[in-house]
Backbone:
């Protein structure tokens, strides 16, 4: 009896492991797996930020946090009423453009300081844009708040992609040298290949796709597609990149959609989800093959990834074609967005000390 039991336990364990691996292959984890998760966290406790000048400031309760295993937890301006009436209804919020502008100022978060003084961008991630952004009469103030809101989100997503790219490069080198790859890494590669829509085992194709989107390009497209955060899609569904979908769930119907058309605009739980979907779209959709090839060529030549070098590859992003690209170039030039391609997120604070770089 004991002998049978000793044989049965390892066999059962082996079947369980095989089943788990099989499940991951057949139904791989969703794109957000192992990434920081944005959660609305209404809390009665005040959070504090350390400003560039070294002073702590209090942030009201009702915050959006980005949580990741072992990563710094930082929160955003509030308070935010998280009650939701579905994607078709308004999300009520107590934060305003003026309040957000003042908070950025108290945090010493200024774009000029980021570019001219090399200050890092604070890890502030808003769940949604201020609901009164369209009411701001001063265009420069509206644009400034919009850029300072979206920039940390773009840098966060690029940081996530860069972490995957570094791991991918390590495994690529291991395989080239003929070294054995651990089972957990093999499973990770399978999931990554499925998420980036490439043939499993094609490391070169993966390396072309698992790469960043330059902030200047992302900011210009967000501004153009969302009307500087004032569009109906951005207000009701956090959709700042105007991504099409044919899925009725979690989407909004364009009011001026032509008869016979079925497309909708994707809606998202938060701005961070919207930016992640945008980056994944550029990195996987066949319409943006030229974008990925040009970016890969820049890598091969040892050149930095710059928005102005890639903007011409996105003609198919909009039905307006060249007119759309002309607008993107103008937004990038007038607002000097190219200077933000070198921006980096702050390393944050943990227990009063600077957190280690990830």
Residues:
């Amino acid at each position: 009896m004991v002998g049978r039991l000793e044989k049965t336990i390892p066999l059962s364990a082996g079947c369980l492991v095989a089943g788990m691996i099989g499940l991951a292959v057949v139904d791989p984890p969703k794109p957000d797996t192992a990434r920081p998760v944005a959660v609305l966290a209404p809390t009665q406790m005040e959070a504090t930020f350390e400003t560039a000048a070294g002073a702590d400031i209090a942030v009201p309760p009702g915050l959006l946090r980005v949580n990741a295993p072992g990563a710094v937890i930082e929160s955003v301006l509030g308070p935010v009423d998280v009650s939701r009436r579905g994607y078709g209804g308004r999300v009520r919020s107590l934060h305003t453009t003026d309040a957000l502008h003042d908070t950025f100022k108290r945090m010493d978060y200024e774009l000029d300081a980021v570019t001219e003084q090399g200050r890092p961008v604070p890890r502030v991630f808003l769940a949604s844009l201020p609901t009164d952004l369209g009411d701001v009469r001063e265009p420069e103030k509206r644009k400034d708040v919009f850029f300072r809101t979206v920039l940390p989100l773009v840098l966060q997503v690029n940081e996530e992609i860069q972490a995957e790219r570094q791991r991918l490069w390590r495994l690529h080198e291991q395989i080239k040298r003929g070294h054995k790859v651990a089972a957990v890494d093999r499973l990770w590669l399978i999931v990554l290949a499925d998420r980036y829509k490439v043939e499993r085992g094609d490391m070169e194709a993966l390396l072309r796709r698992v790469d960043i989107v330059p902030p200047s390009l992302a900011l210009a497209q967000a501004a153009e597609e969302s009307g500087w955060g004032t569009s109906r899609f951005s207000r009701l569904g956090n959709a700042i990149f105007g991504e099409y979908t044919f899925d009725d769930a979690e989407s909004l119907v364009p009011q001026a959609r032509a008869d016979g058309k079925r497309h909708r605009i994707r809606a998202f739980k938060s701005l961070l989800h919207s930016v992640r979907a945008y980056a994944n779209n550029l990195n996987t959709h066949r319409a943006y093959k030229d974008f990925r090839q040009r970016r890969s060529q820049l890598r091969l030549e040892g050149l930095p990834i710059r928005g102005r070098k890639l903007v011409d590859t996105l003609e198919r992003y909009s039905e307006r074609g060249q007119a759309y690209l002309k607008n993107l170039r103008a937004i990038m030039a007038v607002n000097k967005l190219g200077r933000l391609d070198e921006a980096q997120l702050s390393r944050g604070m943990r227990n009063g000390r600077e957190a280690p770089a990830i």
